[in-house]
Amino acid sequence: xxxxxxxxxxxxxxxxxxxxxxxxxxxxxxxxxxxxxxxxxxxxxxxxxxxxxxxxxxxxxxxxxxxxxxxxxxxxxxxxxxxxxxxxxxxxxxxxxxxxxxxxxxxxxxxxxxxxxxxxxxxxxxxxxxxxxxxxxxxxxxxxxxxxxxxxxxxxxxxxxxxxxxxxxxxxxxxxxxxxxxxxxxxxxxxxxxxxxxxxxxxxxxxxxxxxxxxxxxxxxxxxxxxxxxxxxxxxxxxxxxxxxxxxxxxxxxxxxxxxxxxxxxxxxxxxxxxxxxxxxxxxxxxxxxxxxxxxxxxxxxxxxxxxxxxxxxxxxxxxxxxxxxxxxxxxxxx
Length: 335
Fold this sequence. Notes:
The chain is α+β, with helices and mostly antiparallel strands. The protein has helices at residues 9-41, 57-69, 73-77, 92-101, 221-239, 273-280, and strands at 104-109, 113-116, 119-128, 131-141, 147-149, 154-156, 166-168, 171-172, 177-179, 182-184, 186-188, 193-195, 201-203, 217-219, 268-270, 283-287, 290-294, 300-304, 310-312, 321-324, 332-334.
């Protein structure tokens, strides 16, 4: 019998084939999306094949400390909150120099203690060289469970070292100084200065300010002697001047109707023995690279009036002698 051209069976077979193709395509799309979602989501800071979303805060901190002990600065930074992970000195070079001076060993991490809904503290103990360290490391917990260490680095102010050529572990440093826990030796290129604290600094916790006691520049003994010598020579020049004013101060002022009129060229200045002895041992302090004295050194000053009478100058005072030891040839400036 001749097949009916309007028979529905062939149409049903065509629809079934199309449906099968569509189903296969949909299944492939689902599989592709299933693989793409984890790749797109990422693991965040400190992520690894074993994602840190599943890591406890204690495990998270322990991985951070081991990254430091291994000298892997990039890996360590992955565990630190973004705002604390910035700084030119948070690198493998500085970390390696620190570990040479004091390796991080004997890491022991305790159980986290909640201090806020989104923050915990993890007690840790370890050694940096011969120094035993015990501290709490704060860890934030994000809405999605992401972890980030809030106290993994330490920022040390370096304003006092401006213009001195600061080096840390032999590496030149400029601007703000942010460091990992470790051992650091501070020095300055300017040979007129030294670091008051002669021993290396162990950076471990922001709560122990005594760790940084003495971490400031001071004049060397030789530079201090140079300052006193320069000031003494300048004072001698001023002492020899007969003018009403000098670069050192000790100016004689006309008191007007209330006193005699001083005559320029008649002034006599003398540095008393008491002042000479004070000058020889004067206390010298610094503001940056500029040295100045803390002293009550003064001169005995007289002048003559137009009639030739001699008077003692009252109220005359020396200015403050300052020497910039960053200058190629330090000189005295009286201010």
